[in-house]
Amino acid sequence: MEKTRIMYIENKKDGELAGPARIGRVTFSQSGKTIYYKGKCFQSLKGDGFKSNYFDVETGDHYWISGCRKDGRDALYNTSVEIDEDVQEEYWLEIRNLPENVKIKNLQVQGKY
After folding, report:
1. Cβ contacts of 13 within 8 Å, gap of 6 or more
2. What is the pLDDT of residue 27?
3. Which of 12, 46, 72, 81 is surrounded by the fewest CB atoms within 10 Å?
4. What is the reported pLDDT for 46?
């Protein structure tokens, strides 16, 4: 069985500090070193990225990919986030514990910095 997890995925276009972000379900390779999301394949930058930790194998674009935090502060810098419809309810109920927000699919998030 494939291992899946709801994660925060932010495209760091052109080395920007903040980029377009999504919350969605990813799958992992058997070794756990490769992440797959919506037809994209990501591999670790092994600490060599600037405000990014993965790259798209096909395009070379850099991404910040991390587990979702209960407090919602998944981004490094303030940005807008779209939650995939197929994980929206689980995200608000299981991760954030905010059932009143279950209908929200777009939000502004505060970054860590």
Report:
1. 19, 20, 61
2. 96
3. 46
4. 84
Burial per residue of 58-92, b for 16 or more beta-carbon CB atoms within 10 angstroms, e otherwise:
eeebbbbbeebeeebebbbbebebebbeebbeebb
Taking the alpha carbons of 29, 40, 83, 74 in that order, is the dihedral positive or negative? Answer: positive
Q: How big is the CA angle at 72 (ends 66 and 77), to the nearest 5 degrees? A: 70
* DSSP letters for 39-71: TEEEEE-TT-SSS--EEETTT--EEEEEEPPTT
Question: What is the structure's pLDDT at 33?
Answer: 85
* Direct distance between the N- and C-terminal alpha carbons of the chain, in angstroms, rounded to an integer: 37
Measured on CA atoms in the order 97, 100, 103, 105, is the torsion positive or negative?
Answer: negative
What is the C-alpha separation between 106 and 70, in angstroms, rounded?
17
Give the strand pairing for 79-83 and 21-28. Answer: parallel
pTM flag (> 0.85):
yes
Per the listing, tokens 């390779």 go with 29
